[in-house]
Every structure is written in structure tokens, then in C-alpha cells.
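Researcher: Re-running this chain for the archive, since the previous output was lost when a drive failed. Same request as before.
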Amino acid sequence: MTTATMQPPDRKLVLDQLASSETQVLLLVDHLTPAQWHFRESPNRWSIAENLEHLILFEAFIRSAIQRTLEAPPEPQKKSEAATKEPLVLGLATSRDTRFNAREIVRPTNRYSDPLKMIEEFRNTRAQTMAFATETQAPLRDHFFPHIAFGDLDCYQWLLVIAQHTVRHAAQVQQIKADPAYPTA
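Model: Regenerated C-alpha cells:
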């Protein structure tokens, strides 16, 4: 037996988190100079441009994975275990002490030379995710795919991961901007 679509409070939570995390990132990347855009705290850390590119790639990848997963048969037997992972998902942005290595497919490779085009692509990507979260009637809680650290998460949790992941990288951008060597405008 599958569950109904997202309940209104769940949908509101996802949409609020997606909207607020988008706003947070857009405020942080507004009016950056080329030097600020490409500044790295160290050679092994991403620049602001690389963080934003990663967010675009990650979000499109996860949204696509959700859509593919929803085409598969539901796995309601996984619901009880996934439910225990909700605090991990909701704490993803604030638990920055655990570092994750991005999959190759979502690593930045300087695909965007123009910051304004990258910001536009971020907005477009988020708009697609928001439209999906607004319109879907799929039983997201009955379909699962694994997170690299948390194991199986349901597709609703993955929408929350997108928002939490964005906030996590917004914190990384704030850290870059706080570096004493960060270029002034």
C-alpha cells in the first residue's frame, strides 16, 4: 500500500527551505568582483564560483534521481528506517564538521565563464525543483535511494537534502568571504 502525496505541512516545509536557501545564496553572490568570485581559501578548497556550480549540478542530479526513482516500484518496507533519518537530513546544513566528497558528476569544472549566466542557471535549476515540489502528487515517502553517508532516504527527504545542501554551501561561501585574504570590492 502506498501513501498519499505530500501533506500540506511537508510541502510547505520543503518549499520554504528551498526558497530561503536560494535567497541566502543569491544574497551572498550578489555583485562580486571577478577576484572575489574566483578566490580560494586554499588550493584544495572551492571558490564561490565553484560552490555555485556544484550547487547547480548537485540539484539537477538529485532532482533527476528522484524522478527516476519514482518510476520504480515503491518500497514501503523501508519507511520505518528512513523516518529515523529525518533529524540527520534536517541537520545537514548545521553539521559542517562532517565533510562529504562530491561525486565526480557534481564536481565543478568551470562550465560557466560568466557569473551572471551561472546565477541565472542556479535560479532556473531551483525554479524547476520548486515547480516539482509544488506540483508533484507522487508518493515520495514510498520511494528511496541511498545517500553517501545516511543510507536510504525517501524522495521527500531528498528534496530537503537539496535545500539543506544549499544552506551548507552558503555557509562555505560565508567562510570564504570571512577569510582575511578575501579580496575587497
